Amino acid sequence: MALLMAVIGSVAAQAQYVPSQENLKARQEFQDNKLGVFIHWGVYSMLADGEWVMHNKRIDRDEYAQLPAGFYPSRFDADEPPRRLLDVQERGQRLQHR
């Protein structure tokens, strides 16, 4: 019963939501910019297969725990990902990733 009341309350609150002018402006700027990038970098992104990699690739916990031994943050160039994105943009290409 408590769960039902929580869901009903949540739906009612959403129906009454009115975005502020600042929020509307931010949404429009986001739409106009046309590019948003989130770069996931770190020891557990080395496999480059998403956060469900253990499940999807059937990697056991012991094998996954060995990843930090092969991680070399000193080799990371923070300027390289944005450079690559700009190169793609300059060539008029589209960059897609899941």
Short overview:
With 98 residues, this protein is mainly alpha-helical.
The count of domains is: 1
Q: How many beta-strand segments?
A: 0
**What Rg is obtained from the alpha carbons, in whole angstroms?**
21 Å
Instruction: Please count the helical segments.
Output: 5
How much strand content do the residues show?
under 5%
Helix content: 40-55%
What value does the average pLDDT take?
78
How far is the first residue's CA from the last residue's CA?
38 Å
Task: Report the major sheet.
Answer: none
User: Are there runs of 5+ residues with pLDDT below 50, and where?
Assistant: none
Instruction: Write down the overall geometry.
Output: flat
Element-by-element helix/strand order: HHHHH
Structural class category: mainly alpha
What does this structure look like?
It is a single chain. The protein is an all-alpha fold and 98 residues long. The protein has one domain. Helix content is 47%, strand content 0%. The chain has helices at 2-15, 21-33, 53-56, 61-64, 80-90. The radius of gyration is 21 Å and the shape is flat. The mean pLDDT is 78.
What brief labels describe this structure?
47% helix; mainly alpha
Spell out the blueprint of helices and strands.
Layout: H1 2-15, H2 21-33, H3 53-56, H4 61-64, H5 80-90
